[in-house]
Amino acid sequence: MGCSGCRVRFNFGKALSKASVFFTMVLIFTYFFYCLTGICDSAPRTLYSQRASDRTDYDVLDDRRRVLDDLRAPPSLAPDAPPRRNRAASDDADAERTHAPGQGLTRRAPDSANETGQSSGIAVSNTFGSKKVPQAIIVGVKKGGTRALLEFLRIHPDVRAVGSEPHFFDRFYDKGLEWYRNLMPRTLDGQITMEKTPSYFVTKEAPGRVCTMNCQTKLIVVVRDPVTRAVSDYTQTLSKNPGLPSFQSLALKNSSTGVIDTTWSAVRIGLYAKHLENWLQHFPLSHFLFVSGERLVTDPAGEMGRVQDFLGLKRVVSDKHFYFNQTKGFPCLKKPEGSSRPRCLGKSKGRPHPQIPSEVLQRLRDFYRPFNHRFYQISGQDFGWD
Ligand SMILES: Nc1ncnc2c1ncn2[C@@H]1O[C@H](COP(=O)(O)OS(=O)(=O)O)[C@@H](OP(=O)(O)O)[C@H]1O
To answer: Which long-range contacts (CB under 8 A, 24 or more apart) does 204-209 make?
Structure first.
């Protein structure tokens, strides 16, 4: 009797420990399941992911997909596959999303967030490779098509890029090179680290600073008809500030004389020759690649071929990666490897422009003509803007 009582107690204890293991497993699986379906997003967020909520739904979903992609096939489990990347967030309102001073050290850089899987609430460490300063930078121009170029490049298995704009060489230079390097994703041997910050092109100090880091850095400039670029720039500002004065009142010093106001940044950024001359004081022309923003839309694969050659990469990104999305009116990416759906850029890329009086556009075209010609001369490329 006594012994059978012991057995009952013994079995009861064993059953209890089995049940607690079982319930712990159920809890872990439930947690993972909820995280993977996105419900963990209601959990407290990191500073970075709070900022990410400013983005379009598309881009937030895109981040989650990228994290899931990376979870599906970690490099160590797929030895035959090309090295996979934990990609950074697609940064849509790029010009505004930066590593702000004071926050930069506490807020995770997008890639760092993804490297630890934090945006999905799952701690997955990526300790492969090392963080390096970029060997190639997309330095400009604002509204040229820099986001499209970076996203297209990120399909390449040998390119790893930080998703948001670091603004190191213009705004946060005093944070030091280690801060900058730490923002970068890890790369394996043979992979290129990249970033894009379009405002570098028009920042006087940027070329000297980039050269101080590494004078061998490859520089990519996506250029677009400066008139359309100015309208695109204005459209972006207008979207954030609907009370903005009209384009013509900002572009012209005086509507009766038609004199262009070159102090307006939307106009000034389009003086490509002037900005390039500043860069050429520190870098030879051979370090630059000028990508046509127009051809990036009409022939993305063709432009990507040039970019890959310039970066010394195998031509991996080709026409099989693109399709033209009729609704968006722009090329989008077909299903990238490991993804279940095609990918277009966010709503703030490729948006309709307000109607600008044709005489104002003509006035701007006349204004830019000599600067454009000078730019064609220096770069050795005719972009056909006039
Ligand atoms: N594939 C694709 N999809 C969407 N948009 C595309 C694409 N290729 C180039 N573009 C053009 O990119 C323009 C935005 O340029 P940037 O990415 O350099 O803008 S930013 O400076 O980072 O804000 C954006 O300007 P807007 O048309 O004024 O929105 C687009 O014309």
So the answer is: 204/278, 205/169, 205/170, 205/173, 206/139, 206/169, 206/170, 206/279, 207/278, 207/279, 207/281, 207/282, 207/283, 208/282, 209/169, 209/173
In the block, tokens 């012209």 appear at 252
Q: Are 57 and 160 in contact (CB under 8 A)?
A: no
Q: Classify domain 130-379 at the CATH topology level.
A: Rossmann fold (3.40.50)
Say if ligand 1 is within 6 A of residue 221 CB.
no
Secondary structure (DSSP) of 122-146: ------SSEE---SEEEEE-TTSSH
Q: Among 237, 219, 229, which residue's Cα sits nearest to residue 269?
A: 229
Q: Which helix (H) or strand (E) holds 193?
A: strand 192-196
CB 199 within 8 A of CB 142: yes
Cα separation, 56 vs 52, in Å, equals 9
Provide the 8-state DSSP code for 344: -
pTM of the predicted structure, to 2 decimals:
0.75
Question: Within a 10 A sphere around the Cβ of 284, how many other Cβ atoms?
Answer: 8
Query: What is the Å distance from ligand 1's center to 283 Cα?
Result: 27
What distance in angstroms lies between residue 145's CA and the mean position of ligand 1's atoms? 4
| Catalytic site includes residue 335 | no
Interface predicted TM-score (ipTM) over 0.90: yes
Tens-place pLDDT, residues 137-193: 999 999 999 999 999 999 999 999 999 999 999 999 999 999 999 999 999 999 999
Q: Which of 95, 258, 130, 276 is closest to 201 using CA atoms?
A: 276
d(CA 149, CA 303): 9
**Rounded distance between C-alpha atoms, residue 269 and residue 263, angstroms:** 10
Give yes or no for a contact between 209 and 321, defined as CB atoms under 8 angstroms apart: no
Spatial separation of the C-alpha atoms in residues 350 and 236, rounded to whole Å: 11
Closest ligand 1 atom, residue 165 Cα: 22
